[in-house]
Amino acid sequence: MTRPVGRVVDVHAHVLFPEVDALVAGHPGLAAARALDARRNGPEALAVNGPMVGSRIPKLTDVGVRLAAMDAQGVDVQLVSPSPSHYHYWTDELTARRLWESANQATADHCAKAPDRLRGLGLVPLQHPGQCAAALDHALSLGLLGVEISSHAPGRELSDPAYEPFWARAAETGAVLFLHPFGCTLDERLDRWYLSNTVGQPAENAVALSHLVFGGVLDRHPGLKLLAAHGGGYLPTHIGRSDHAWRVRPDARNCAQPPSSYLRRIWFDSLVHDPAVLRHLVAAAGADRVLLGSDFPFDMGSEDPLGALRDADLPPAVLDAVAGGNAAALLGLG
Questions:
Q1: CATH number assigned to the domain with residue range 9-331, chosen from the 4 options 3.90.870.10, 3.40.50.620, 3.20.20.140, 2.30.30.240
Q2: Which of 65, 153, 176, 276 keeps 20 to 30 A from 208, CA to CA?
Q3: Per-residue b/e over 172-209, b at no fewer than 16 CB within 10 Å?
Q4: Are 2 and 307 spatial neighbours (Cβ–Cβ below 8 Å)?
């Protein structure tokens, strides 16, 4: 198969830091958080998750192993973000600060071992909105390109006014915000057959993006560089329903333009597991708004992201853009 023109960039890849999780070991809130996670996922999923993650520890932690896997995939550059299991949005302010400081530094150190091939994102504590701008600045000061965030924090949606200083600072600095859900508030309804992930993740993406759109966040901060994992979940494929509500219901018209127009102001990764859905995403968001993503190295990702991209039978120029050109522009890779 013909290799895409230019560098191939995977914007959805993770790194794991045992030293970060060590910061919460023995914390009184950890047991409750794990119990909630177990309730939401169910025992069958937890029985699979442990061995699955364990078998991937070398790819998640060892730069040499990571680079070899990238070579096998034909990937030149990865945008590396901490495993969402590091969010720990239940922690108090002091512990949260220790977590994001540690995760940001560890990510920067990991990427520094292969600076021509790895770029990184840090973390912010969404449960403490007052810390988010400082955490973002800390990540940027270490050479990271932005931060990874989940779809919500306990008791707060992304449309919460408390996040306004964070959005403003992100827009001002040009930081990349990688929206990657972790967990789903549908709880026990999804506790079998791994529905917590297969249904929960795209649902969380759609809810979070809808809060940013309908809540007017993208109107107030048009410069935000927002990158949504998992192709934005269900929202791009069902955006017509959002547009219809915006047209016919006054309570749904809290954003200045039809919701579909905002898809062209958001970036999306290509991890949708279906060639037809990927073609629809490109059509809905624009060929310049979709970037290659693999969810490296987890089992719900793609071991052959370029192959998945080729299966969509996109025009050559679009394939080249999604494979790396769009990411180079968004991330400033030159």
A1: 3.20.20.140
A2: 276
A3: ebebbbbbbbbbbeeeeebbeebbbbebbbbbbbbbbb
A4: no
Q: Give the span between the Cα atoms of 122 and 101, in whole angstroms.
A: 9
- pLDDT of 1 higher than 70: no
Q: Per-residue b/e over 61-85, b at no fewer than 16 CB within 10 Å?
A: eebeebbebbeebbbbbbbbbbbbe
Question: pLDDT tens, 126-177?
Answer: 999 999 999 999 999 999 999 999 999 999 999 999 999 999 999 999 999 9
CB-CB contact of 171 with 105 (8 Å): no
Residue 299, burial from CB neighbour count under 10 angstroms (0-12, 13-18, 19+): middle
Q: Could you tell me if 3 and 69 are in contact, meaning their C-beta atoms sit under 8 angstroms apart?
A: no
Where are the chain's structural domains? 9-331
The residue among 142, 17, 2, 145 whose CA lies nearest residue 86 is 17
- Whether omega before 275 lies within 30 degrees of 0, making that bond cis, reads no
Q: Residue 151 has which token pair?
A: 């779809």
The answer to whether 79 and 119 are in contact (CB under 8 A) is yes
**Can you give the pTM of this predicted structure?**
0.97
Structure tokens at 162: 């408390």
User: Has residue 323 got a pLDDT over 60?
Assistant: yes
Query: Cβ distance 192 to 44 under 8 Å?
Result: yes
Axis crossing angle, helix 43-55 with helix 28-41, rounded to the nearest 10: 110
Q: How many whole angstroms separate alpha carbon 79 and alpha carbon 125?
A: 20
Burial of 1-17, coded b for 16+ CB within 10 Å and e otherwise, reads eeebeebbbbbbbbbbb
**For residue 140, is it left (φ>0), alpha (ψ between -120 and 50) or beta?**
alpha
In order, the DSSP letters of 207-270 are HHHHHHHHTTHHHH-TT-EEEESGGGTTTGGGHHHHHHHHHH-GGG--SSS-HHHHGGGSEEES
